[in-house]
């Protein structure tokens, strides 16, 4: 962990501009998968997801990585994708029927996390 020492003027500038946030805007974005839906013929499922943006600016192009382990055999299941959505500053937004590579949550345990985002 880095320690940063700022003058009072610099600290006030950082506080008002939001530049004190983490190096990547995605560090302050969280995703929660509310409900998975089984895939159709294209093997892509959908999920209702809640995205929380704790940044002081909007974010877009959110990259998500999902890591799961099969309950039988311990096979690792990974998927990554970019969600072409924008979430306003300091808000939480529900996105319904977002396309995802399907992960059968009855047969696997794991989670998804935000790996990056772009200031939007």
Describe the structure.
Helix content is 8%, strand content 55%. The chain has one domain (23-119): Immunoglobulin-like (Sandwich), CATH 2.60.40. The longest helix has 10 residues, at 8-17. It is mostly beta strands and 120 residues long. The radius of gyration is 17 Å and the shape is globular. Strands 1-2-5 form a three-stranded antiparallel beta sheet, with no helix packed on it. A three-stranded antiparallel beta sheet has the order 4-3-6, with no helix packed on it. Strand 3 and strand 4 (76-87) form a beta hairpin. The protein has one helix at 8-17; strands at 29-37, 44-53, 59-70, 76-87, 91-101, 108-119. The protein has one helix and six strands.
According to DSSP, the number of beta strands is 6
Q: Mind summarizing the main beta sheet?
A: 3 strands, antiparallel
The low-confidence parts are 1-18
- Number of individual domains: 1
- Tell me the name of the CATH class: Mainly Beta
Q: How many angstroms does the end-to-end distance come to?
A: 27 Å
Cα radius of gyration in angstroms: 17 Å
The overall pLDDT, averaged over residues, is: 81
Fill in the CATH topology.
Immunoglobulin-like
Beta content comes to: over 45%
What string, H for helix and E for strand, traces the elements in order? Answer: HEEEEEE
CATH architecture: Sandwich
Strand order in the largest sheet: 1-2-5
Tell me the number of helical segments per DSSP (H or I, 4 or more residues long): 1
The geometry reads as: globular
User: What structural class should be given to the helix and strand makeup?
Assistant: mainly beta
> What percentage of residues falls in helices of 4 or more residues?
under 10%
